[in-house]
Amino acid sequence: MAQTETLLQTLAAKLPLLLSTAGLLVAVFLAQVLLKGNPLANLPVALDDLPSDEKRRQAFLTRAKDVYATGYKKFKDRVFRIITSNKYHVIIVPPKYLNELKSLPDDTVSFDGAIEQTMHAKYTKLEVGHKLIPHIVKSNLTPSLVRLNPTIAEEVQESFRREMPECDDWTPVNINYKLLRIVAMVSGRVFIGPELSRSEEYVDAAINYTIDLMHARQAVDTMRPWLRPFLANHLPEIKKLNERLAQADAFIRPIVAHRKKLPKEQAPDDMLQWMLDGQSEKFGGEYKTETLARMQLGISFAAIHTTTMTTTNVFYNLAAYPQYVSVLRDEVREVLAQNNNTFTSAALQGMKRLDSFIKETMRIDPAGFAGFQRRVYKPFTLSNGQVIPTDVIIEVPAHALAKDPDVFENPDQFNPWRFYDIRQKAREQGAVEEAAQNQFVSVNPLVLTFGYGRHACPGRFFAANEIKMIIANTILMYDMKLMDGHTQRYPNLEFGLSSIPDPTKELLFKRIEIA
Known about the structure:
By secondary structure, the chain is α+β, with helices and mostly antiparallel strands. The chain has helices at residues 2-37, 53-75, 98-102, 111-118, 121-124, 132-163, 175-191, 194-197, 200-222, 228-231, 236-261, 271-277, 289-320, 325-337, 345-350, 352-364, 398-402, 418-428, 432-437, 460-477, and strands at residues 80-82, 89-92, 109-110, 171-173, 371-376, 380-381, 387-388, 392-396, 478-482, 493-495, 498-500, 507-511. A hairpin with a 6-residue loop joins strand 1 (80-82) and strand 2 (89-92). Helix 7 packs across helix 13 (289-320) and helix 13 (289-320) packs across helix 16. The radius of gyration is 27 Å and the shape is globular. The termini are far apart. The chain crosses the membrane at residues 12-35. Its cofactor is heme.
């Protein structure tokens, strides 16, 4: 009996230690099981010096450019992950795997799935995934540009007459706001026809829908992912977007309904009509009027948002580096003189220095810090044996790549003729393909402005032509400079992976004597 009591006392004394040891063993066992089943567990994470994922999420929202750059420099040729505002894990894949990634089928990695996540389509109601739109852009819009370019040029000039002040002396202009209206009218001329593209109702609907959509996206971004299903629809920005969507929808839907009733011989020659004519079972059958109206809004958003941002960035550089304007002006005059003073496709292709200036602008100040975003629906394995699991977003660190000194000489320096020189040297060496790959409109694995692979932006040819026409017309008509007291380019505003030119800034414009 005494021995039993002694044993019980000994066990009681050692019980805390035994329980602690057992708990530790269980924890280690569970950790091993979980780690073994989690392909992400062994991936390094950017900003691993921060104490928590929440700190990393906050860092992403406020300084994402540094997050991508830091991770790229530290891991470079390795796969790593970052903590973002997205509810899905984000895996950064080195650029050297781009050719592998672009070959993966859409049911494995999805471009549309990534857009749904980054634009929070569940809450913003952005129309995503319609196969008809890229088909129409590739089959109708792009082949029609040779025919449409002179018309687009006329619309650019008319929009400038409507929107720009006289500028007989140095005049402050909020060029971002003016460009929103100019791009809306010029794009609308192709998207919805001349009768409607200049109407204030259309311009207001297209512009404000674009602005409110981006504000709503940003508001959802700042909310913790687990709260979004409960609170996102109650955000003021989402409510405002819904109101704007209803207004725009009310304007566009009757137009779509009217077009459906028109005899074929009266059908206009614009993108809305191409969409109506292109409906088939291959592309989802016949769309409801409401869906076509939303698709038209989505096209307007894509065109207005990206084209305005790009062109504003170029204008800020032209004003910050006025020494280059005369060179560009001479080129535009010379090329137009060779093409009957018409903005033909050949004329636009001949503006090689202007092309380089735009491409370098987007290398330095892209719209986003990552490229080739895809949502992973099926696991796949890279050539190095790294398994990429399902339910993650993959990205390529595009901006960090563009600022890599191993890729571009003096990468932090704005060199407007960088790509012009690359193209000229390639031609001299007979490398025609390399010369072509360094055009602004080209898809290039080193500058992911328009994406890469089969889902590269299908509208880039139209956008590039429109941007060139706007800039060329401007430098033929105006001198420009930064506002008094400013000596350096206005810095872009950064939020999450997005970078936008500051829309509140003004530039000074003065009309020049036309030779």
